[in-house]
Design brief:
Helices cover 32% and strands 18% of the residues. The protein is built from 13 helices and 21 strands. Helix 1 packs parallel to helix 11. By secondary structure, it is α+β, with helices and mostly antiparallel strands. It has a seven-stranded antiparallel sheet. Strands 10-11-12-13-15 form a five-stranded antiparallel sheet, covered by helices on one side.
Length: 564
């Protein structure tokens, strides 16, 4: 009991307080500052509610069945035999520190199978319950899809354990009547490549595996018919040696480059040298100038760097979303859907950055070889990564904090105790005055995440002194308590931002947001007029940026011009 009290006291050192389009970054053990392998994931969907999923492990009798529901829609698909033993999962990580993330790339539409009975989301979560290692996960995914038929379009999976990091890409085979009412093409074609240690990789809604070694099972696994099926379908007519998975099954067009590969490029250029030579590729202007599948970072990559890469809006690039007129008068880096629009017969695109407003949940997961497998960490957050915050969830966690639990609110029902709704409220308020509000949010984010990264080192040390059973309880209670503490801190931030920025004005304050949240808040934090009536003084009127003012003058200057 003393140890638990110590841990929760340490947590109190903090100041109080599916996806149709996703992004994955992968960092191998040798490329990270702490020796962990990392996977990031943003579940970006306009219909996805951000919650932390938890499934306890267990043993099951022979004949037990598992219902399968399509992750994106909730549609019942089938029942499949339950495994004799399953592993506990929290989010996209299981108790053995196996991590699976994904991005949907679609691929050739004729390869979708309407009779398939297992979708990409079910492949993730069922596999996490059944596999201990990345290699086991790859084979489990293939077996499930081939046995029951694949119900989704093309997918890229990030599959990582404490020792290895892999990319797996797959797609269905479409439908062909076998004459017995079944599908003669049931199943998938696929390839998986192990990322060399010391390198980083990424994928973002576009297949990225080109050619691959056919005789290197240590580093490359694939379905036996992956090239033969492409020839059968007329996608490819060359040799096995020259076969490229993505060129056969998901050839890239302008949208795939500008809307998808550009996010990979943004991550690569942040952590590695020499990426400016691919800017024409990322912008969709030169498909032949293909980026590599993985790159070696200039220095080892810290977890915090990965956190922040998930917040990217192409800042400092020709696609910077904060600088053009589309950012409005307060440099908002978001463009509401649809992505494409037409003016006078000419089609244009809005950028699709890594950080986006429609994120349901996101994470950066760490598989750590220097601690027991059940001490991997899922850094978990909800809503837009640029205006939200991550909290550490150990992979042995049994249970979910109320603020992150399924059933606490939904996309159609507001809940005042839901982290998803709280973070969405703060984010949507920030979009109205992004040039100023985002800066305050980022100060809170950085302090929380940096202190959390330091804190888990102390928590690790404390946990290692406990028995396995006590360790699991200790880490589970720490994870739940800390997540709730973040919710409380964000609630205070929510109120602060409303008071400071209401009605387009900015109230002057004696100190910054951190001082307010750290316990010195309240009316006295803001500047009053000195008459004891809590009436604000020195209110600021920030107006709009120069580019926006010029655009307004050009558009309607004759009406708005002041006549003297």
């Amino acid at each position: 009991m003393r140890k638990l009290q110590y841990c929760l006291a340490a947590a109190a050192l903090f100041p109080h307080g599916a996806a149709a389009a996703c992004t994955n970054f992968i960092v191998t053990n040798g490329a990270s500052t702490d020796g962990s392998a990392m996977v990031s994931y943003a579940a970006d969907s306009h219909a996805l509610y951000g919650a932390l999923y938890h499934t306890p492990g267990g043993k099951f009798r022979a004949g037990a069945m598992l219902p399968v529901y399509e992750w994106d829609t909730g549609r019942y698909l089938t029942d499949i035999p339950q495994a004799g033993e399953t592993y506990s999962t929290v989010g996209n990580m299981n108790e053995h520190s196996l991590i699976i993330g994904e991005t949907t790339y679609g691929g050739r539409p004729e390869l979708e199978d309407s009779t398939g009975l297992i979708d990409y989301g079910s492949l993730i979560y069922i596999t996490l319950q059944r596999a201990k290692t990345a290699r086991e996960a790859i084979l489990t995914i293939a077996e499930l899809a081939n046995t029951y038929g694949y119900a989704s379009s093309g997918e890229s999976f990030s599959i990582v354990d404490p020792e290895e990091a892999w990319i797996m890409e797959l797609i269905g085979k479409g439908y062909k009547d076998d004459g017995k009412g079944g599908n003669a093409r049931k199943g998938i074609v696929w390839v998986a490549r192990r990322i060399p240690d010391g390198y980083v990789s990424a994928h973002a809604n576009q297949a990225r595996i080109t050619t691959f070694p056919k005789d290197d099972p240590e580093n490359c696994l694939y379905s036996p018919d992956v090239a033969a099926f492409a020839r059968e379908m007329g996608y490819y007519d060359g040799t096995d040696e020259d076969f490229s998975f993505c060129e056969a099954y998901a050839p890239a067009d302008f949208g795939a480059l500008r809307g998808c590969e550009a996010r990979v490029w943004a991550f690569f250029r942040t952590v590695a040298d020499g990426m400016d030579k691919y800017v024409d590729y990322a912008m969709g202007h030169n498909a032949e100038n293909r980026m590599p599948l993985w790159v070696k970072p200039r220095t080892k990559v810290s977890p915090k760097v990965v956190f922040d890469c998930m917040r990217d809006h192409y800042e400092g690039t020709p696609m910077d979303m904060t600088t053009d007129i589309g950012a409005g008068g307060s440099a908002c880096p978001y463009r509401w859907r649809p992505m494409y629009f037409e003016v006078d017969g000419v089609e244009y695109c809005n950028e699709r950055a890594t950080a986006t407003q429609q994120t349901g949940f996101w994470f950066v997961a760490q598989a750590r070889p220097d601690v027991p497998d059940n001490m991997g960490i899922l850094w978990f957050g909800v809503d837009d990564a640029a205006t939200s915050c991550l909290t550490p969830i150990y992979c042995c966690t049994q249970g979910v904090p109320e603020c992150l639990s399924e059933g606490n609110g939904s996309m159609l029902e507001y809940s005042p105790t839901s982290a998803f709704w709280l973070f969405n409220r703060v984010s949507n308020f920030a979009y109205m005055r992004y040039d100023m509000i985002a800066g305050d949010i980022r100060k809170v984010v950085d302090k929380w995440e940096n202190e959390a990264l330091r804190l888990v080192r102390d928590v690790d040390a404390e946990a290692m002194t406990l028995s396995p059973k006590a360790r699991g309880k200790f880490l589970s209670e720490f994870s739940i308590a800390t997540a709730q503490q973040l919710f409380d801190r964000w609630s205070k931030l929510d109120k602060y931002l409303l008071v400071k920025y209401m009605d387009g004005n900015v109230k002057s304050e004696h100190a910054g947001v951190l001082e307010y949240l750290d316990g010195k808040g309240g009316p006295a934090h803001f500047v009053d007029n000195g008459n004891g009536k809590q009436i604000p003084d020195k209110i600021q009127f920030p107006g709009y940026g120069e580019k926006w003012k010029r655009a307004v003058a050009k558009d309607n200057g004759e009406i708005l011009k002041v006549i003297k």
